[in-house]
Each structure stands twice: as C-alpha cells, then as structure tokens.
Specification:
This protein is mostly helical. It is built from 18 helices and 3 strands. Strands 1-2-3 form a 3-stranded antiparallel sheet, with helices on one face. Strand 1 and strand 2 form a beta hairpin. Helix 11 crosses helix 12 and helix 15 runs antiparallel to helix 16. The radius of gyration is 22 Å and the shape is globular.
Amino acid sequence: MVHIIASASRFSLIIFIAIYTYYCFAALKSNISYARQERLYKKQTTLMYGILVNGNLVLFVVYQDIRILGLMICEILLFIITLLIYKHIYENASKSLVNNMCMLLTISFIILTRLDIEKAIKQFIFAAVAVVITCFIPLLVAKLKVWNKLRFLYGVIGIAGLSFVLVAASTTYGAKLSISIGPVVLQPSEFIKIIFIFFSACMLQETTEFSHIVKTTVIAALHVLILVASRDLGGALIYLVTYLVMLYVATRKPIYMFLGVASGALASVVAYHLFDHVKDRVIAWKDPLSVIDDQGYQISQSLFAIGSGGWFGTGLGLGMPNKIPVVTTDFVFAAISEEMGAVFAICIIFICISCFLMFFNISMQIKDYFYKLIALGIGTLYGTQTFLALGGVTKFIPSTGVTLPLVSYGGSSLLSTIILFAIIQGLYVLQFDEGEDDEEVGQPSKKRRQRS
C-alpha cells in the first residue's frame, strides 16, 4: 500500500510543478493584465502549498515519523509569513521572485526530509533565520543612498575576508572553505561574493577609462587569486564570470571579455596541473565508469540515479539516492531526478531560468546605472552558480563543488542566496520609486505596475 501511494503521488507532484512552471512564464507576458497576473500568482502559491503537503504526507506514510508532520506545519507557517511580508510591507515587490524563492525552498525541504530529516530541520531553521534577517534589506536598498560611495570599504572587506579564510579555514574536499565559530560553520566566500558585486559596480559606474579599468581589474583579480590559493575553484570561477559580464556591459568592449576568458582558460590548465583534486574531477568527468571505484564513483552514482528515475521518478522514499556521496549538497539535483523524475527536475531548471530572466529584466528597467550593474551582477552570479551546480551533476562539465541555490543543504549558501533575492526585491521596489517621479499625482500604484 505504501509503495502504491508513493508511486501515485509522483504524478500529482509532476502535474503541480509543471503547471506552476507554465505560470512562471505566462505571468511575464508583456500584454498580460494586472488582474490576470495576480490570479496566476495566487494559483502559483496554491500549487506550492499543494506540493509541500503532498510530498510531506507521502514521506510520513513511508517513514511513519511524526516529526515530518510537525516540520511541514512549521514550513507552511514560514511561507505564509514570508508572503505576507512581501505583500503588505513591500507593495511593489516582485511576486514572481517571492513565489519562485518559496517554491525552490519547498523542493529543498521535501528532498532533505527524504534524505536526512535532521538536516531538513536545520535547513528550515536556516531559512527562518534568513527570512528574519533579510526582511529589512529591500527597504535599506531602496531608501539608503550610500551604497555607491563605499567602494574602498567593499574592497578591503572582500580581500581581508578571503585572506582570513585562506589562513584559518578548514579543508573540505580539497578546498579551504569553512570557518567554525563554536557550533556554527560559516563559508565566508558566499557572503563576500555579494560585497564583490557592490565593489565592482561602484568602480565601473565611476568611469571606464583604461587606467581605472586596470586598477579595478587588479583588485578583482586579487579576489579570484585568493580563492584559487584556497583551492575554491568553483567560487573563483563564479567571481570571474560575474566580473567579466559586468565589465563588458560597463565598457562595451569585447576585448576585455576575450582577455578575461583567455586568462580563465589558462588558469584552469594551471590549476589542473597544480591541484590533485582538480585533476581527479577532470578524470571523473572524462570517463567516470573507467574509474568508478575511485575518482568516478560520485558522478557515476549520480548518473545511475538520474537514469533509474526516468521521466517520472521512482517515487519519494522508493529510490536509493543516499548511495550518492554528499548528496544533500553538491548532488541534490540527482536525488530529485531519481525520486521525482526528469520532468520534475526539468521544471526546476525552468524555474531557475525564470528567476534569471527576472534579474536581467529588472537590470534593464532600472535607470540608476549603479543599481543596474548590481542587478546585472546578481543575475550573472545566480545564473553561473546554477549552471555549475547542474552541469557538474549531469556530467556536462567537471564537478566544481558548487551548491544549487536555495535547494542544496547549507546555511551559508541559503542565507547568501536569500540576501541576493532580497537585494533584487529592493531594486524592484526602487524601480517603481523612480517611476513615481514621472507619474501624475494620485495615480494608483496598480496602474504603474501594470504599465511597467
């Protein structure tokens, strides 16, 4: 009976997320009315709660653990509070981004409950703390006008923070990433990448003269080199791509992009010969089955899991995702593919693409050049991290040890991503504040939103 319930529920989960994904793009049509858009967002919220309840009830039936029901109730309350904050405090917030953030967290809660309920509880606590911490960020971003005047402070904090990690961090899977403060384990590079975006935007909005670009690039390169020295090559790649995109948009000179890509390619070759764990990942990527007992075990298990799940999955609790090493962090997407199916996994990819498009859409609409670069940098960072996470799991690229934003387990990754979403919400609110100067006095904000 349990097997039948778990197998049947996978189809309802797929239907729910497929409809939700369709609404993600339907709500972004340029000719859609405001009333129609609001109805779609409400339907998205209903589908999100449906997936959350469906998944947790199935897991309760499979494992008979009362903690699953208690955790589900807490998760529902968290999402209700989050949606109310952005509905009533930030009237002009992007409901699309709020819904997508909550949906990705929903998927994270379900799959982590399946894999390790203790980690699922910790993930919920991380998310609750992150919502509390970040609920004021959109207001600070929209109202404070000092963010473009702190470039020196951004640079010092970034370099000092990464240097401290290089010296004091513990080594995890060949890279120096984490610092332990009592029971709390932090990954500072997850937060410094946000400061790095603000530093780059400050410098690039000032001037694009060659001498200034050289100075900015040297400081940005120092961030990347410290990460390379820490053997955090996934993080270094994210920093590099983010800066190159911001530099190209600011200067409109392809030569900078070409030189940056060439430097990154050369650095990759050097890293391959210097670091053994990088060489192991490349060997595993080229032919994992030939080294399945050694370097290729993790990626092989990931591919087996994705293949055994097929289009519709095995059903929650009926697969064997725990055979994948570090499945809750780097390879959580493989676990989702196995038990929820490839269709469900593809929908997750499209939800991430929807977020990526919204980031760039906001960047194009903002008038202030500094904030435009901030939104561009956040969108690039999010897109690059998502690509690296998915590419490593599916053997499209060598594994970089990068987590899937909002889905993978990890407090630092989760908090930094929610901060990114909160900053974007602040810029979205700022966009409408800028538009108010051009509107007639007394015109309803709903009309402004619809026309935008």
